[in-house]
């Protein structure tokens, strides 16, 4: 990787991530292919490295686009690059939300706005169902994992104050039980 | 005081954000709507807007919830709250990573199972906290089918559904 001897200017890093963040709608995962393409084109990071960063970013809590910006920003521009990339990713959505929030407060009683948001909400329910469907479909699950997943979800629904604890327990059980149970 | 409470809620939830924003929406709803800070309807508006504006959905939701409850300061502390956990964990992995060796693939597998439970929780929370009308249910069913059967960008599915919802409520 050539980034060791030539760190990229933090301002360039900021502008690059700012642009990608401002122009991609549809959540963090919509940003992933755009990041891969644009950063590859600039010669900052090649495809294979990018997917290594992606795997790492997925094992850390937090929005995938944000985690990628911190780690890739560091790779191409040191800690300054890391800060530049992270702020570049966060500033556009932050101000968009504040602006829209201020605007919608004024029009939240309009029947048009209400209908629009209600329709969008219906679609989001369907899409979350779709995301779940894909999560389950794209990898081979064994019975052990499926039972843990369903049992975990049930316990979470009934004991909503213990969600964090339950999540940690699920991860530990699946991680530890993995070898014994995998067929 | 409210802003401190907001920061703390999102900071805690931030540690759970694995596998895309949808995993933590249910937990956010339980904490925000459950505590009476926002009504279920206000929360659904926030979700819809957050999916239709740039940026990671979970961060957008945090920003918007904070803004609704406590203005720009609330937006700022909630956003910081949800983004601090990844920064802390990245540093912690950098420091302690060499002492603890975890199989990354197995860890990601385990995280994925946990995240799936959380997504189920999200779906359950959103459905159970609302009086779902038949039209909403229909829109959800069609969106689901479009999402898994076609390659249409989800943003267009949401926009189409939003326009449909607008027409249904106006006509």
Structure description:
The complex is a heterodimer of chains A (183) and B (171). Chain A is mainly α and 183 residues long. Chain A folds into three domains: 2-107; 109-139; 140-183. Helices cover 80% and strands 0% of the residues of chain A. Chain A has seven helices and no strands. Chain A has helices at 10-23, 28-41, 47-58, 64-107, 111-137, 143-158, 163-181. The longest helix of chain A has 44 residues, at 64-107. Chain A is globular, with a radius of gyration of 20 Å. Chain A starts with 9 loop residues before the first helix and ends with a helix. The model of chain A has no long low-confidence stretch (mean pLDDT 88). Chain B is mainly alpha-helical. Chain B has two domains: 2-130, no CATH class; 132-171. Chain B is 79% helix and 0% strand. Chain B has helices spanning 2-14, 22-32, 40-52, 57-96, 104-128, 134-149, 154-170. The longest helix of chain B has 40 residues, at 57-96. Chain B is globular and about 65 Å long.
Give a brief outline of the structure.
The complex is a heterodimer of chains A (183) and B (171). With 183 residues, chain A is mainly α.
What key attributes describe this structure?
heterodimer; A: 183 residues; mainly alpha; B: 171 residues; 0% strand
H/E element order of chain B:
HHHHHHH
Oligomer: heterodimer
Question: Largest contact between protein chains?
Answer: A-B, 83 and 101 residues
Number of strands of chain B: 0
How many helix segments of chain B?
7
Which stretches of chain B are low in confidence, meaning pLDDT under 50 for 5 or more residues running?
A: none
Measured between the Cα atoms of the first and last residue of chain A, the distance is: 39 Å
Mean pLDDT of chain A: 88
Beta-strand proportion of chain B? under 5%
